Amino acid sequence: MKFLCVFKKELRLYFGSFIAYSLATAFLILTGYFFYTDMIFYDLFGDFQDITSSLWAYFFQDVRFVSMLILPLLTMRLFAEEKKLGTIELLWTYPLKDPHIILGKFLACFLVYALMVMCTFAYPLLLSSATTFSWGPPSAGYLGVLLLGATFIACGTLISSLTENQVVSAMSTYGVLVFFWFLNWNEEAVGPQFVGTVVRFSLFDRFEDFSKGVISTQDVAFFILATFFFLFLTLQSLESRKWRGT
């Protein structure tokens, strides 16, 4: 449980500044706006017998987009700030191993994100006061949002470990996430067979079933493995200092 000291330290840094509060406010404003507009669209053009494929599918795809905008700003400081201030050297003098440091930082960032997502649960609760619907589809959507967010955070953690500039960290993370988003967009240029292959590695396409209320064990396993893969690369990034002599 050595990672807990890093975990608590990161939470103090998040909630001791305006970082978490400002990003949470932006997250809730954007998701609230999208939920409202999705409700209007559903009310005007939706099939009232199929709330899953209309309202929830649109809403969780919007939450996916907002998460892509917010999370790089949440992860950019994880290692980049430590490197810039020189506190990373002090951190390495503690009786902590690199996996403890990575896990503590990752879990703290994920908890902040999970709290943001939990606040949006007020939207379906508000809707339930006006109409009845099955809670299965939104539950699947929230599970997908958390799994996707964990992968985004792991990716941002990796990028942050590679630089000491927070802006570079955020922009590079945006670049990687946008790459995964556009992975299968140009089917005419690369052919349907190639697209069919790369779509299996697209974070955004893997999320589609969750937004439609479907939980696939393959998709759950994919996001878990992708998260661990990015964290493993982060570990390799930190351990590279041993052979670089830094």
Write the layout of secondary structure elements.
Layout: H1 3-15, H2 19-45, H3 51-75, H4 80-85, H5 87-92, H6 98-119, H7 122-128, H8 136-160, H9 166-181, H10 187-190, H11 192-198, H12 203-211, H13 217-244
Labels describing this entry:
mainly alpha, 246 residues, single chain, 13 helices
Note down, in words, how this protein is organized:
The protein has one domain. Helices cover 79% and strands 0% of the residues. It contains 13 helices and no strands. The chain is globular and about 60 Å long. The two termini are 27 Å apart. The model has no long low-confidence stretch (mean pLDDT 84).
In a few lines, what is going on in this structure?
With 246 residues, the protein is mainly α. The chain is built from 13 helices and no strands.
Catalogue the unreliable spans: none
Major sheet details: none
Number of DSSP E strands: 0
Order of helices and strands: HHHHHHHHHHHHH
Beta percentage is: under 5%
* pLDDT averaged residue by residue: 84
> Rg to the nearest angstrom?
19 Å
Category from helices, strands and their pairing:
mainly alpha
Choose one word for the global shape: globular
Indicate how many domains the architecture comprises: 1
What's the tally of helices? Answer: 13
Q: How widely separated are the two ends? A: 27 Å
